[in-house]
Amino acid sequence: MIGGTILGALVVALVGYSIATAPASLPGRSPLYAFNPDDVGRTEQKAWAAYYYRQWPQLFDLMLRVIRSAFGLSLPQAVYASYLNTQAQIVWARQGAQDGLAEAYMLTFYEYIREPVGGQYDSHKAAELEVKWWAVHRNRDQYPDHSALAQALAATYAEVYQMPAERMLPAGEARAAAMDLSDQWIREGKDPNSPLLSQIADLLVQSYRSLSDAVAQPS
What is the reported pTM? Predict the structure, then answer.
């Protein structure tokens, strides 16, 4: 049962985080813009692997780390936000866009974190764009290259960070390239020792560095 699985992961995560220090962030920035690209990128790679292994408790734990680092939330705030995000991903893995449930979870996620992080985005639009890039990635056979995915990612970033989409495209390109390698890793059998995993992590770090540079510029 999904709820019980997440509850068990929650207990484990809280025990671990009770002795953990606050995540590293860049000084002089508000929470939405202060994420550490290296921390977020390398942890997200592990979260991707947990998703494709269908290791839902591990995914929750890793999303807790990613979301706390990416948005500067307090531990209680990050726990609930991570629950929403993980549930959305589990639903997407099992049924895709059917019934709109994954998007509904992401809507609640974006609405919940908007005030704590100082976001100015439209929660409905952010959730819609988030799930749209999920759909573009799932249906990659419809696109000749990863440009559509990069643009979908850039559009999501543009809404969340309230910046021009073209400024976000380098971050979208690097993240889409990471997904290309992730897809290759899946096709090759999801070897936990594959050298592709470190390459994916490097591209995600590159993506978040590009994003960090973009949001540091005046809009």
Answer: 0.88
